[in-house]
Amino acid sequence: MDKRFWVGGYSPDGGGTSLGIRAIGIRNGVLNDLGLAHAADSPSWLATHPKLPVLYAALEHRGEVAAYSIIGRDRLEPLGRPVPAGDLVCHLAVAAAAGALVASCYGDGKVLAYPINLDGSLAEPSTAPASVDPFAVPGHERRASRSHQSTVLRSGRVITTDLGHDSVRIWDLVDGELQLRQQVALRKGDGPRHLVEHPSGLIYVVTEHSAEVIALGADAAGDYREVSRSALGESIRAGEHFPAEISLDLPTNRLYIGVRGARVMAVLGLNAGRPVFLGSAPCAGEWPRHHVHVGNSLLVANQLSNTIEAIGLDSADGLPSRRLSSLALESPTCIAAQVTN
């Protein structure tokens, strides 16, 4: 049986050529374009509800979040009107247990919590407290807050990255509102972008500006602190290469990071929780903005070369080793697995 995915991308309002959200499938390593599921303006990030046949899209350059009913396996229909968000909304995460959708906005730094109605449609959001730059100096120019990702932890708390303020924030989601529990300041200039949580409780943060992976661990009180940081290999240079997505392949206990500018996927093993660089290999395209795991392979959204690549992983070291198939797709930025309810 084939596996199916939704793909978002940048349309002309975001400098790309995508027409909207597409459906794709893969069977035995071969990718297939299943057509345009629905037209949309720069649906740069997608999130699927885990229980309802609903897909959410961040319409980045419109500053809106849209909900769609999933019709069959390759078509979408609007579920209500798009709801306003902040400037350059770039990421969405479904907090199903709390009945909310969390949105991160790169342009103005806002983090928003949208109540999810019973049918999956969205109500008006509440706005989380604004980030305070831990490195602010009185009398100096303020740095812009750049919210980039939100993730629901196994505890039910929400964790968000602020690329502009070099910090990670942990929230409690109570009655539809985000209440700040802790702010973890990293190093000035790190630029935390995306993160994943390991079943051990460790959190791995990839930084866009310093090009590293930072491990965060919690103490007995549940407060997080930095416990290690690891480079992505000697060939990855901060300021020249820009890490994007980070993923965890749990069966092999490895981290995978797409590095824009370097045209590679970097692979790190976990040694007693500490990431250790194992190697990198080409991603078969330009600007690997996002990727997902499909068995012993990766699907990579190469934004600037306009392709989705299916790449097999070496069974011994986990490095991308063979190109299984390629699918031409305009300006892809996000791949979201279809959920079988």
From TrEMBL:
Entry similarity comment: Belongs to the cycloisomerase 2 family.
Pfam entry (one): Lactonase
Protein name in the entry: 6-phosphogluconolactonase (Cycloisomerase 2 family)
